[in-house]
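In keeping with the milestone schedule agreed at the kick-off meeting, the structural modelling team has produced records for the first pair of proteins. Each record is given below as a sequence line and a structure-token line. The laboratory manager (R.T.) confirmed that both were archived under the project's standard naming scheme.
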Amino acid sequence: MSLWSLHTWKRDRRSLRRALPTLAVMGALLGTAAGVAAGAAGAVERDVLGSGGLTQVELSSFEGDDSVRPLTDSALRDAEKTPGVRQIVADYPATLYAEEEGTYDLTSHTLTPGDDLPVTRGALPAQLGRDHVVLPASSQGTDFAPLLGRTVAFGYTKATGARAGTTAVVKLTIVALYDPSWQADGPGVAYLSEDTAALLAAARAGQTVEDFRGQEGAQSAVVVVGHQEQVAGVVKSLQGDGFSASAVSDRVRNLPGLFGAADLAMRIGVLVLALGAVWLGVVRAADSARARIGQFAILRILGYGRGELRRILLGEAALSGGVAGILGAAVGTGVSVVLAGPLSEVLGLPITVADALPGPGWAAAVLLLPGVGLAAGTLLGSRDVLRRDPYLTARAHS
């Protein structure tokens, strides 16, 4: 870089410093997208895959789709015989509502191995008992903290006809409370043992538990595999047996919504930043060189060659791109850190400040692309102006 570059970059308002604001904004947008995607990915890896998701397969049942095998007891027993399968836990959604105190109406699900509840009070037993329930700390205006450890009467629906039903009561002990912001299965969910969940679902359908599990079956099920290397083979075997099976790791690594949008924005941002920097280099270098053509002509007459003049412009490009990269990285990182809290609520996963920092590769892209792209554009944009005869140019500007 020429020593003249620092002087002209600071003092001359026609230097390539004019490209700095635009490049800084583009760098900040890329840094923000990289931080958001890194935060979401880090939370998923730590709190979902790290809690056992790498060794889990999800089975789904689709009502009315004959091509998918229903998750009945016999079907699940067949699935358990698949080599590599250690355990299958079926989910039977139903509803629990207030019987004595409060006005809550909670959806109930089986507590499966894939549910890594952020428990705030109490403790989850190694295996949830038939008379146990795990509730959110609060839901629908009801604070469940005073009820922790107590046996509470809950109401549930028991069908007595095609469109008729009555209220039945089940007494369950509240063994733990979890953070209500964790909503993997929706807001206000009560988690039960598989047997209790099946009891409620069968009652709502007006069937015995045996008939319901043997005919209707579960809505979904989590298959625990012995080792993550066996997951692909288990998925293939289950799909070959007619099940709708997918690895949990595949599902969470391709989260839709904000995570997917941020990841796409990040990749597009790299291309936009690189091409934008080159385009700005071409346009700004040509404009800057034309605006200062008289100065450059005098330097040529004093013995400076085109190479030296080109180094002056490249130095200005490097300074502009470098400052823009630093500003973009700083602002983008700051914004992604600020968004860590709202993103945690959207995904239902805790995202730390460290999670929200862009990875080294993306940080390097934000820092380096503005300077590299602007320099490349400068080489292209300044060629015609620097080729002009310095004596004719000086005479024309005298």
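The second protein of the pair:
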Amino acid sequence: MSTANNSIVTDMGLAREGHLKIDWVQAHMPVLNKIREQFEKEQPFKGLRVAISLHLEAKTAYLAKVVKAGGAEVAITGSNPLSTQDDVCAALVEDGITVFAKYNPDPKEYKELMVRTLETKPDLIIDDGGDLVTILHSERTDLLAGVRGGAEETTTGILRLKAMEKEGSLKFPMVAVNDAFCKYLFDNRYGTGQSVWDGINRTTNLVVAGKTVVVVGYGWCGKGVAMRAKGLGANVIVTEIDAIKAVEAYMDGFAVMPMIEAAKQGDYFVTVTGNRDVIRGEHYEVMKDGAILSNAGHFDVEVNKPELEAMSTSVRTVRRNIEEYKLKDGRSIYLLAEGRLVNLAAGDGHPAEIMDMTFALQAMSLKYVNDCYQKIGNQVVNVPYELDEQVARIKLASLGTDIDRLSEEQKQYLDSWQEH
């Protein structure tokens, strides 16, 4: 199959710039490079088709190339209309990967590109937010039979998958990559923490120091966003619905209060909940003139845009990725990146060294589910701890760092229940 003839991309003339981006991240992804070497020798995906839906930028592109190096025929699409990079798409086509993706397609075309990816009849999938899985189980059940299983990247996707599993509708096994230690401890916390502020700062070109930042949700992503906001000199408020996480935020040194109170104080707002309408009409009514809203959750539903628009007399784009909503009382509220993932829609996403670990988990989880799909059954399973630890050990080796190991006596001590 000719990938160029079958692909849908914006402009193949952009490929040179895309190759440069991919080469840059490859040079900073030593864990994935090690796995690529392993895959090239073992060919774990020989003769198989893999469909991928992830934020289609350079780091994702390199993951696709690693999977292809393992013998797979790969088709890839984006997982957000504004995070796809057209030059990277063109480069992937030149590298022999089928691409159905372009920057900012309309909603109908965006969906069609996902469907086209699934029409390659994949044996395995890598998903982000559960979109491919949802289409397979609702609109294209004719393509279900050949799917052995897959791996899911995000909290949002795992919530959807577990809902399917609970009602008995999930038709193949999925590995919850997001729940692996080497994913949420580093990607969710350090990756989201840095990339959210990369996106906000490059988009607004405004100072953070001395401002009040409201972080909505204190999961691992929220922890990272709050930590980096504090490092930039902001006063940080956390809003939560979980009492335990709220106490944790308090102990971490942040103010904790209901959203209706935080809305009065915030200069910047970042939503990281995975839920809808966490910022809505009642909050807009009390916000400061000039408040800046952004979302770092998977779907653009955390900031309620219809209610904001209904309260406004005009909406205009004042800078790239910044829309000004002029309220009836004269106040302005600014929304970044249409309320989509600010770190990807208005930035380049997580740092390469962070995604190195996450995408290593994706590659290894894909191999695991292919090896064991008949034993796993139709359920959501965790990444095996030995794979998690293997990624960490490769990462340490790449840093030139070694750690201690238990002696036999220490192992026996820990395994003994008798009086020590």
